[in-house]
Amino acid sequence: MLAVIRSSFGGDREQSRRIEILRRFPELVSRRFRRLIQAEDLVRAAVQERLERPDFTPPAPEYSRQDAARMIVMLAGMAVRFAIHETADDPTPNRQEAALARSVALVRITQAEF
């Protein structure tokens, strides 16, 4: 998910420039948010395609494969957003990857405990 988001915004080489532009033109934040939603939609479609395999069973009869795909992407997005917030002061790829690993671990621990 993080890779899709990065590539949809021009990759790592454009990151510092993007940050500066968003600081100078905060009205562009809503446009960036729309792009994030588009990136999530692309990932959701790919996940849903994977869930079309015959051996996948939705978690309960009232939930569809589309519901499962949307939830998987939303959970992934939660971990990505946590990592983005954690590295907002210095969003380098290495820091983001490390923060994402910690974020995913925290999601798993939280899920297991609660």
Can you describe this structure?
This is BetI-type transcriptional repressor C-terminal domain-containing protein. By secondary structure, the protein is mainly α. It has one domain (2-113). Helix content is 73%, strand content 0%. The chain contains 5 helices and no strands. The chain has helices spanning 2-8, 15-24, 29-51, 65-86, 93-113. α3 (29-51) crosses α4 (65-86) and α4 packs across α5 (93-113). The longest helix is centred in the middle third of the chain and has 23 residues, at 29-51. It is globular, with a radius of gyration of 16 Å.
User: Averaging pLDDT over every residue, what do you get?
Assistant: 82
Number of strands: 0
- Which regions are unreliable across 5 or more consecutive residues at pLDDT < 50? none
Shape: globular
Q: Could you tell me how far the N terminus lies from the C terminus, measured between alpha carbons in angstroms?
A: 25 Å
Strand proportion:
under 5%
Give the fraction of residues assigned to helices: over 70%
Order of secondary-structure elements? HHHHH
Count of helix runs: 5
User: For the CA atoms, what is the radius of gyration?
Assistant: 16 Å
